[in-house]
């Protein structure tokens, strides 16, 4: 499930492309007083939410309407955010200053088994390999600085789609184990892939941005954006696709990466087996 905030600008501003840390901080303000979230906030798996960019892009004039979406597989996270935003309407992201005009809930449906559709990545997918994961996928680690555990190799097309898909399924498996429905097998416990097709949105496939994971830290990261085709095989696969829409895909999802939007959904043809 997800919520959408309609934001009205209260001042002119240039669009801040380095919004990730500041937007994450504004969302976290709605959860920080709750101890059940404080205990997991800075862990590797986090609280369990993903968020879009502020859209549409472009210079912001006072009075303009913008939107942001927040998704989570945990209904209580969204309920607590709705309660917070209902009484705390100021929504500042650095110099981009807004007031929340409306809050709405959405539950995208991928369809019953046999349905087909397309899911787009609304924000770039973050996929970085440590030494262990790189070795697992046969990726050359010679350029890593010896002994530096923080050194990562960002996914590029030459690493192959298998490495990217495996990383996506691995991170979603973690979400399933933490916040998912134990009735179903996880994404890594089935043989079939999550998506039938990966079509790059950008001509160069990957692109780089400056990312600020903390106030005094600024890094260049490499991302990719995709149109993801699917055909719902069964109820377990339907659950996996819904989990991806609720949690995002890839790494650093709580920093605004890997947010998904359902773009197309076609019901199964009558009589199709």
TrEMBL record:
GO terms for molecular function: hydrolase activity, acting on ester bonds; RNA binding. Keywords: Antiviral defense, Plasmid, RNA-binding. It comes from the Archaea. Pfam families: Cas_Cas6_C. Coiled coil: none annotated. Residues 168-261 form the CRISPR associated protein Cas6 C-terminal domain. InterPro entries: Cas_Cas6_C, CRISPR-assoc_prot_Cas6, CRISPR-assoc_prot_Cas6_N_sf. GO terms for biological process: defense response to virus. Belongs to the CRISPR-associated protein Cas6/Cse3/CasE family. This is CRISPR-associated endoribonuclease Cas6. It comes from Haloarcula marismortui ATCC 33800.
